[in-house]
Amino acid sequence: MEMLELYIDRKLSLNITHDVLIKAAGNSSVSELLMEFLLKHAKNIAITDETFQSAAAAGKHELLLTLSHHCGTDEVSSKWTDIAKLHDAVAQRAWYFEYLIPRYDTNFDGPDADIALIRDLLSQHFPFDLADGNGSTPLALAAKAGNELIVKSLLDAGADPDSRDQRGRSPLFNAASGGHYGVAIALLEKGVERDIMDSKGEGIAERARERARKRAHMRGFRILAGYDKEGR
Q1: What predicted TM-score, i.e. pTM, was given to this entire model?
Q2: Mean pLDDT of the 84-90 span
Q3: Based on the domain organization, do 161 and 98 belong to the same domain?
Q4: What average pLDDT does this structure show over 206-219?
Q5: Is 79 part of a structural domain of the chain?
């Protein structure tokens, strides 16, 4: 932050564009203080719904308030807070499934309140299928963690099963490479693509198969290799 202030003091040019603000809003490492700095030095840049959407999709409640203050109001629209709440609930469940359960070898299923909140939010039919700063949608986060219950809830609500993050990875890639058999099957039943290319022109299916093979997740490997949903 001090370096940026020094940059300004020396009257060096900062090209803070609309796109810069959108990307900053969705970046988990950008604090409210840094966003205030960017907003202060942005020249004639209006805060649009895209900026709010970027912050909401990353679950950044405080940043939503910062943006609202800049627009002259203390209130954050419920459509943005609902999106942020959904991201937080899915991300919290993802943490249980991806880190807590494997580390402690437990069947702990996380707070039931999170599931209830997710289902309640999805029933409100707001635009929930939004990507965070890494390009990951709630479905991608849930698939990576292997949370079959949330994956099915998101799919039933209309989440895009073929969405891809900034590295070109789809929910199926995340599920298969993590050995999450039930999630992979749920996605395949939605007709997701297996043979697609990422942003570098690499075959995602092949990479996922190799990753599943190395981790000894053979059912995931066999599914992506073209076997049926029983892995045969």
Answers
A1: 0.71
A2: 85
A3: yes
A4: 66
A5: no
Q: Are 51 and 11 members of one domain?
A: yes
Q: With contact defined as beta carbons under 8 Å apart, do 159 and 122 qualify?
A: no
For 188-200, the pLDDT digits (tens) are: 899 888 777 777 7
* 133 residue type, one letter: G
Determine the straight-line distance between the first and last CA of the chain, rounded to whole angstroms: 56
Query: How many structural domains does the chain have?
Result: 2
What residues have CB less than 8 Å from 74, skipping those under 6 apart? 65, 68
Beta bridge partners of 197: 203
| Residue 11 within a domain | yes
Do 65 and 100 lie in a common domain?
no
**Residue 102: enclosing H or E segment and its boundaries?**
helix 101-104
* Cβ atoms of 33 and 4 closer than 8 Å: no
Residue 139 structural domain: 85-224
**Where does a domain end: 47, 70, 93?**
70
In the predicted model, what is the mean pLDDT of residues 131-160?
Answer: 88
How far is the C-alpha of 14 from the C-alpha of 148, rounded, in Å? 45
As given in the structure block, the two tokens for residue 222 are 């066999």
Say how far apart CA 168 and CA 151 lie, in whole Å: 19
